[in-house]
Amino acid sequence: MSAAAAEAGDRMPWVPGNRWDLVADRQPDPPRVSVIVTHFDQSEQLARTLAALQHQDHPAELLEIIVADDGSPTEPVVPSGVRLVRQDDRGFRAAAARNLGAAAATGDVLCFLDADTTPEPEYVRRLTRLPALLPEAVTVGRRRHADLTGLDAETPVAEVGPARELPEPAWLRDEYARSDNLLHADDRSYRFIISAVAACSRAFFDEIGGFDESFSSYGGEDWEWAHRAWQAGAVLAHVPDAVAWHDGPDWAGRSGEDRVREGNRQSLLLAQKISVPGSSGRGLLPATPDLVVHVPEGLTPSAEFVCVDSVLAAFPLATVVVRAPTQESVVRTDPRVRVGADGSKLDARVTLRLDRALLIQDATPLAVALASLGQGSIGSMTLLGDDGVVLGRADARRARRRERRWATSAGFDEVALTVDGVHALRDEPHVDAWVGGWGGAERFV
Q1: What is the mean pLDDT of residues 116-143?
Q2: pLDDT of residue 6
Q3: pLDDT tens for residues 6-16?
Q4: 237: Cβ contacts below 8 Å, ≥ 6 apart
Q5: Element (H or E) spanning 295, and its range?
Q6: CB atoms inside a 10 Å sphere around CB 291
Q7: CA 130, CA 31: separation in Å to the nearest integer?
């Protein structure tokens, strides 16, 4: 660990990369927590969850409980001291209900639960520790499953849950083990943030925006929100000892054509909103580009053509920005090419700004380098040709957002990297040799 990383973990409200382990031993002053319980027509489960929240070991004077009701046919009954907010029944609108609860909350940390997910006594304290230390932290607890039918509201769920336990989702358990409880998170780790057992700081929630209310049936809104949080610089962490018990099996373990249909609906909506390989389409252009490449001004028409064509041959789903094309430019007709200042507003996961026109003969080394940005400790890199010439600079959205938030680049490392298979173009490369696929590198560089 570097001295800067150690100092960050010891004194600052941020940590480098996703290194929440640097503050694993720190305990904050107990924060004021707002627990938002999303509910629809589940009176038995709601009573059990609210009773469990009354027995949390977090200081009671620092605990606010809000039930966000999604238009239940009968207004839910809540104990004295619990706030109730309601919205009309217009279908499954968990995203809107959570936002409604968050809007009413006054706590510094927001803790989300579902009415059918009952927490153990240490749940709130353990899940909110990191968000109280790191404003960017997004934590997810452990959701265990049990058949809790008929269980009295005052019966401690931690005592009876194991005897009634149902299978725990293997896909979640295995990923938490593989990633060391999300310490080694990446761009696809949003899939392991479950909003029924999640927490974050109020400041971060307000900054990135609430849940996307276009999700109006089961599932997906938590993954879209978690992806947005990650891209904004979130520190993701699984807290396995923050346990809440879900009444019934995991949704993925249920059978039937309706489940498949709903799963497809969720995947299609997410594919439009998350432009990350493995989430978005494999051939369709994403609504927001995953990679944006800015071509330098002042290129000859031939260098501009070979450079842009080379980039799009290597990265077919990228967007290329040509700020000031020449009159002879032939690249502007491609829908993946943005012309003028408008392209400067694109906020891609990775942005590559070229210092000079380049030729990509082997895309693999560059693709690997760009894919690593924002995943671990590296947030930006200067790309060098094999002769040491600077080709450009690439950075990750996560690093840009962190730097803007904290006015320092210390949240991520910057490196210089020599990339094989990429060369600076001469001013007048042989276009016929490029399009024809013949001739050696001497015709281009």
Answers
A1: 97
A2: 44
A3: 444 456 789 99
A4: 18, 20, 130, 137, 138, 139, 140, 181, 182, 183
A5: strand 291-295
A6: 22
A7: 11
